[in-house]
Q: What sequence folds into this?
C-alpha cells in the first residue's frame, strides 16, 4: 500500500463522474451529503427541497461532508461485467462493492472498493473513503483500506467499538496522514 | 363483506419471445373459464404495467381490454414494480368493496430480455437507477448478495443453506406445470454453478421470464347470485410503504435513510408489509398453512421467512434444515416452486402468487397440495418502496 503514489491518481485533473457527490481536497476525499438545518437528518446523495423526515418541516438542506470512515455493513462483487451504462475494463476484473455504515450520520453508503477483493473484506471491518477512476476515466468515490490510525473526516470518529483493532492494519507503509 | 376469488389463470412461464399482451390474454381467458364467466361479464379490468427496470412500459389495462375485445368495461393500469400485481388486485378489490362493480379482472404479463435487467438507454444522470449502473456497476443481484452476505455474518447461514433453498423450491417447481424450470437439482449442482455476486451463485438467483397471470374477483353477493363458489376469499391486501428511516439499503439506492434525527421504526420494511396484512386479516403467522414469498435469491427467501414471522430473526435456516418449509413440512414456503422455478415476470408475479394461494386453498394443487390448507400469505416487495402482501383464506 503506497498512499502517496495511489493518491497521485486522485488528481484535480480527473473529472468527477458525477458533480457534487464528493470532493477531493489535496489528497482527501469526502462524500458530500446534505444535513437538514432543522432536524439534522443527513442525506446522501445530496438532496434539495424538503427534508425526508416525515415529522420535520425543514426546507433548508445544507451541504455537509460525511465521515470518511465507517464499518462494513455488507459487501459483494460483480463476477460478470455489469451492463451499460457501466463501462467495464478489458480485460475485466470483478468490481468489488461495499456498503459502509457511517456511525455519526446513521447511514449506510454503497461504493466500489479500491484495491481489495471480497476475500479481504468482512462485515464490521473499517474502511476509509478514497476515490478512483472508472474504466473510461472519470473519478468516482471508493472505499479503501484505512490509511493509518485515527484519521477521520468531517465530524467525530466514524466508528465506535468493535473495530478498534483494524485501524492500524491499513497503511502498511506506516506513513499514515493525509496531508 | 369480502371479495371472492372466482377464478385464476396463468400462461406458463418461460422464454417464449412473444408480446406480453398474448400471455396476458391467455391468462385472462383461463381465469374467466375457471370462474365460469365471460369477458363480457367483466365490468372492471386492471392491468399491472409491464416495466423495464423500474419504468412503466405499456398501458396495460387498455392493452389487455383491447386484446380481449373492447366491451366498454372500465379499466385501470397501475405500476408498482414487482408489487404491481398486488396494487392491481387492491384497486379491483376496493372497487368491489365500494359497491362500484361486482366483477373485476386483474391481469399482469411480461416478456423480458435476456440477462441482467438494465436501465433504459440514453444518458440520464438524474436517475438513480441509471447512476447505480454507471457509477458502481451495481446490478440487482449485487443488492441481493449484500443481504445474503449480511445473513452469513450475522446469523451464520452458509452457502449450503442457500443451496438447500434452491433444492427445495426446484422440487416443488418440478410438480408445477406453469413453472419455467421443471428439473430437480442437487445442492452440489447449485454449489458448482458460477459465482455471480459473491456469495450468490447463478442457481441462487432468479431468472427473468416471460409469463402471464390473471384472477377474476367478484362480490360475494354476485357469486351467490350466479352460483359461483365462494370458497376462497381475500382476507387482506397490504400495499404499505416504508417508515422513515428505512435502514435497509434498497435497490436502486446509493444509501439508506439516516437515523441521525429519528430512530429506526419498530419494524423494518419487509416485516411491516406482512404485519399490515396480518392486522387487516385478524390473523397471525401461526394461522398460516403455507406462504409464497419473493425469493429473488435463495438467501432472500430466508429473510422473508423471518419477516413474515414464521421464525425469529436469524432462525429461518433452522426451519429449512428441519424441513418445516418444504412440501409436506409444517408450513411450506413457496409450494409453487417460487421464483427459483419461475423466474421473474414482474407485473405477473404477485398475481401468480395469488393463483397459487387459490389452488392450494381449493385443494386442487395436485402433487404440490398442502394438507388441509386454510390460510395462505403471499409476500413481495417492489422497487421504490412498494409493499405487497395478500392473505387468502377458505
A:
Amino acid at each position: 500500500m503506497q498512499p502517496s503514489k495511489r493518491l497521485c491518481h486522485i488528481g484535480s485533473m480527473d473529472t468527477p463522474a458525477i458533480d457534487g457527490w464528493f470532493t477531493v481536497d489535496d489528497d482527501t476525499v469526502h462524500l458530500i451529503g446534505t444535513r437538514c438545518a432543522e432536524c439534522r437528518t443527513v442525506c446522501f446523495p445530496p438532496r434539495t427541497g424538503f427534508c425526508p423526515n416525515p415529522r420535520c418541516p425543514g426546507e433548508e438542506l445544507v451541504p455537509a461532508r460525511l465521515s470518511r470512515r465507517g464499518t462494513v455493513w455488507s459487501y459483494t462483487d460483480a463476477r460478470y461485467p455489469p451492463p451499460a451504462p457501466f463501462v467495464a475494463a478489458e480485460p475485466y476484473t470483478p468490481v468489488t462493492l461495499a456498503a459502509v455504515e457511517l456511525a455519526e450520520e446513521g447511514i449506510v453508503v454503497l461504493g466500489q472498493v479500491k484495491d481489495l477483493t471480497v476475500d479481504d473484506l468482512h462485515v464490521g471491518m473499517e474502511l476509509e473513503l478514497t476515490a478512483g477512476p472508472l474504466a473510461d476515466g472519470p473519478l468516482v468515490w471508493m472505499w479503501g483500506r484505512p490509511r493509518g490510525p485515527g484519521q477521520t473526516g468531517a465530524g467525530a470518529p466514524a466508528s465506535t467499538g468493535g473495530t478498534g483493532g483494524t485501524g492500524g492494519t491499513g497503511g502498511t507503509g506506516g506513513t499514515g496522514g493525509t496531508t | 363483506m369480502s371479495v371472492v376469488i372466482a377464478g385464476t389463470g396463468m400462461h406458463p412461464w418461460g422464454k417464449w419471445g412473444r408480446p406480453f399482451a398474448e400471455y396476458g390474454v391467455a391468462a385472462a381467458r383461463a381465469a374467466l373459464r375457471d370462474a365460469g364467466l365471460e369477458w363480457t361479464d367483466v365490468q372492471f379490468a386492471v392491468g399491472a404495467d409491464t416495466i423495464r427496470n423500474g419504468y412503466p412500459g405499456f398501458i396495460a389495462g387498455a392493452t389487455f381490454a383491447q386484446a380481449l375485445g373492447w366491451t366498454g368495461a372500465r379499466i385501470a393500469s397501475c405500476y408498482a414494480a414487482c408489487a404491481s400485481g398486488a396494487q392491481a388486485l387492491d384497486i379491483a378489490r376496493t372497487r368491489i368493496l365500494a359497491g362500484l362493480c361486482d366483477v373485476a379482472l386483474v391481469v399482469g404479463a411480461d416478456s423480458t430480455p435476456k440477462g441482467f435487467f438494465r436501465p433504459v438507454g440514453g444518458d440520464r444522470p438524474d436517475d438513480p437507477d441509471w447512476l447505480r449502473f454507471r457509477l458502481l456497476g451495481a446490478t440487482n443481484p449485487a443488492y441481493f448478495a449484500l443481504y445474503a452476505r449480511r445473513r452469513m455474518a450475522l446469523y451464520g447461514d452458509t452457502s449450503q443453506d442457500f443451496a438447500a433453498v434452491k433444492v427445495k423450491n426446484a422440487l416443488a417447481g418440478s410438480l408445477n406445470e406453469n413453472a419455467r424450470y421443471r428439473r430437480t437439482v442437487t445442492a452440489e449442482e447449485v454449489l458448482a454453478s458460477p459465482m455471480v455476486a459473491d456469495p450468490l451463485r447463478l442457481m441462487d438467483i432468479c431468472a427473468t421470464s416471460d409469463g402471464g397471470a390473471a384472477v377474476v374477483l367478484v362480490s360475494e353477493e354476485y357469486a351467490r347470485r350466479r352460483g359461483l363458489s365462494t370458497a376462497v376469499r381475500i382476507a387482506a391486501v397490504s400495499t404499505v410503504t416504508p417508515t422513515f428511516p428505512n435502514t435497509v439499503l434498497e435497490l436502486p439506492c446509493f444509501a439508506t435513510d439516516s437515523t441521525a434525527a429519528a430512530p429506526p421504526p419498530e419494524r423494518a420494511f419487509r416485516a411491516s408489509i406482512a404485519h399490515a396484512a396480518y392486522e387487516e386479516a385478524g390473523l397471525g403467522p401461526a394461522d398460516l398453512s403455507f406462504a409464497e414469498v419473493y425469493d429473488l435469491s435463495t438467501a432472500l427467501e430466508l429473510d422473508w421467512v423471518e419477516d413474515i414471522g414464521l421464525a425469529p430473526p436469524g432462525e429461518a435456516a433452522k426451519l429449512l434444515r428441519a424441513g418445516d418449509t418444504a412440501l409436506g413440512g409444517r408450513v411450506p414456503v413457496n409450494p409453487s416452486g417460487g421464483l427459483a422455478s419461475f423466474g421473474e415476470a414482474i407485473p405477473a408475479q404477485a398475481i401468480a402468487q395469488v393463483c397459487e394461494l387459490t389452488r392450494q386453498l381449493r385443494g386442487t394443487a395436485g402433487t404440490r397440495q398442502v394438507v388441509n390448507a386454510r390460510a395462505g400469505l403471499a409476500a413481495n416487495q417492489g422497487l421504490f418502496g412498494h409493499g405487497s402482501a395478500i392473505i387468502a383464506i377458505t
Confidence is low (pLDDT under 50) at residues 1-9, 151-179 of chain A. Chain A touches chain B through 49 residues (CB under 8 Å).
